[in-house]
Amino acid sequence: MKKLILIALGLFIGLISSAQSLDSFLNKADAFFKKNVKLGQVNYTGIVNDSKELNSLVSQIADFKVSSLSDPERKAFYINAYNISVINGIIKAYPTKSPLEIGGFFDSKKHAIAGDNITLNQLEKDRLLKVTGDEKLHFVLVCAAISCPPIATFAYRPEQLEAQILERTKLALNNDEFIQVDDQKKTVGLSEIFKWYPGDFKDKAENIVAYLNKYRTAQIPSNYKTTYYTYNWSLNEQSSNRSASKKENEPSSNLQAFTPSVLLRKGQVELKSFYNIYTQNRIRNNEGDRIDLDGRQSFFNVQYSVNYGVSKSARINLGLDVIVSSFSDGNSFLSPVFQSGDNNEVALAAFGPAIRFTPFKGISNLSVRSAFWFPGAKNLEDRNGSFVAHDRYTWFNQIFLDEELNTNWRLFLEADFIYRFARRDDQENFFRTPLTGILSYFLPSGKASIFALYQYSPRFERVSNGFDEQFGLAQWFQQAGVGFKYQLNSKLELELSYSNFFASRNDGGGQTFNLGFRWLK
User: Fold this and answer.
1) Which residues on neighbouring strands pair with residue 112, listed in sequence order?
2) Which of 57, 140, 145, 417 has the fewest C-beta atoms lying within 10 Å of its C-beta?
3) Which of 278, 297, 286, 299 shows the shortest CA–CA distance to 504?
4) H or E segment at 460?
5) Phi/psi-derived region of residue 123, left when phi > 0, alpha when psi is between -120 and 50, beta in every other case
6) Residue 378: CA atoms inside 13 Å, Cβ hemisphere, count?
7) Do residues 279 and 296 make contact, with C-beta atoms less than 8 angstroms apart?
8) Where are the alpha helices (DSSP H) in 333-470?
9) If you average pLDDT over residues 211-224, what whole number do you get?
10) pLDDT at res. 88
């Protein structure tokens, strides 16, 4: 009998201790959220300057014993643990503009949670969604991005948990920026959360509109068409430059969040068009001396690219490139655009597939794009006596790396390998290895940037020294320029740039004028 009493007493003490431990954790978490969260945005700068409270919570989460917790207690613990771990992951990499800039933020970086080392995805799916089957958790768990449902200013508690979750669900689904209803077009703009996790919602209502109406005050007509707006992955950071009423797909994000090294997530589409005019009235010889041409030569190249995200982890994109080129000997650098010279030519220069990927899971700011282009027409290098474009198969490889120097300055580096395959007996194989550096300054608004660029582009092929031939450096050029980018709206970006070929050997001595557009959805 005494033994049973001692066992019961031990269990009772253990339960009391566990309850006190959870209560202590929730009190600290509640104070932390109230201090550092306002209007759905987090004061990351303040946390960096004073991280004692966060570190204490992270330590508690790591060693917490969940075995004796009830189901509501365990659910509340894991919800708070998730949101705190997300903030801690951002703080470790701070300053950053987006969680997507941090390699493997959701699927490979591990956190110590209740004695286990697991990723955020494992915590969300294995500890919460699969166990509870509660799809409303998608409006409670916050991913550190602007397009996430806003993070709460309180800790989730077991005795209030279902009411708290219901409150946050209604708050999100009645938010005109999270659920964008257009009565004129009869459409409903949905967060991509509904696209990424369709299975979590499919059995909860007849369709997605019916699901929304379960929690909305203003009902959506059942005949409205559903669409998905672009997810804004910019950091949910408190800033004096960011209005609390700012739309969640405001355009200040894509310019900084989707840099050349950042890939598209599954289902995202990127359309790019780049218009390049190269014009020259002189070239340079092997000694670098200028040689005047008989007249002006101008080339107009237009490249259209479409890229599509195919992996949830945003590590693989597929694409297609199409290039149209024209030549003109008119006096104006715009002559190839309007074909206003005495000799004018235009042709489909090349087309082909492309793949873009991140080779290393832990390095999110490094990506590779590889394309193979087929010539689109015949005699491109001698089209009625004029060079229009390279009449060769082309293997075009680009390596992108970007580094954030501080809040406003970012350095973009690019290394290319461009191999041109001969397809006629009178041609030789050759390749170029351009190296490019771009220093960008992002204006405080987040909608615009200005940049300076430098590029060195050597060409290698078989060259003769008068006695025999060997593979070596045949020619090169250097160019420098300036440019400007501006986010026109939530999906469309504009780029303007100019560059000058200020030095070369056996190569051009002209200048370029460039216009680009990028549409991202």
Assistant:
1) 117
2) 417
3) 286
4) strand 448-464
5) alpha
6) 1
7) yes
8) 335-338
9) 94
10) 95
Distance CA 275, CA 261 (A): 21
Q: Where are the beta strands (DSSP E) in 342-424?
A: 344-357, 366-375, 393-404, 409-421
CB 262 within 8 A of CB 367: yes
19 touches 69 (CB < 8 A): no
Residue partners of 111: CB distance under 8 A and separation at least 6: 61, 85, 88, 89, 117, 118, 119, 120, 123
Peptide bond into 359 cis (omega under 30): no
DSSP assignment of 314-331 = S-EEEEEEEEEEEEE--S
Q: Which residues of 406-442 are buried (b: 16+ CB within 10 A; e: fewer)?
A: eeeebebbbebebbbeeeeeeeeebbbbbebebebeb
pLDDT at 426: 84
Q: Are 326 and 336 in contact (CB under 8 A)?
A: yes
- β-partners of residue 57 are none
DSSP SS3 for 60: helix
Mean pLDDT of 15-28: 74
Least confident of 119-133, 184-198, 279-293, 437-451: 437-451
Q: What is the mean pLDDT of the chain?
A: 88
* 3-class secondary-structure state, position 487: strand
Q: For the CA atoms of 438, 353, 276, 280, what is the dihedral angle to 10 degrees?
A: 100
Strand partners, 477: 457, 504
**CA-CA distances (angstroms) from residue 7 to 11, 15, 68, 130?**
6, 12, 15, 33
CA dist., res. 89 & res. 376, Å (int): 48
Residue 470 — very low, low, confident or very high, per pLDDT cuts 50/70/90? Answer: confident
Write the pLDDT tens digit of every residue in 299-349: 999 999 999 998 867 789 999 999 999 999 988 889 889 988 889 999 999
- 54 DSSP assignment: H
Kindly report the number of other CB atoms within 10 A of residue 244's CB atom: 10
The SS3 of residue 29 is helix
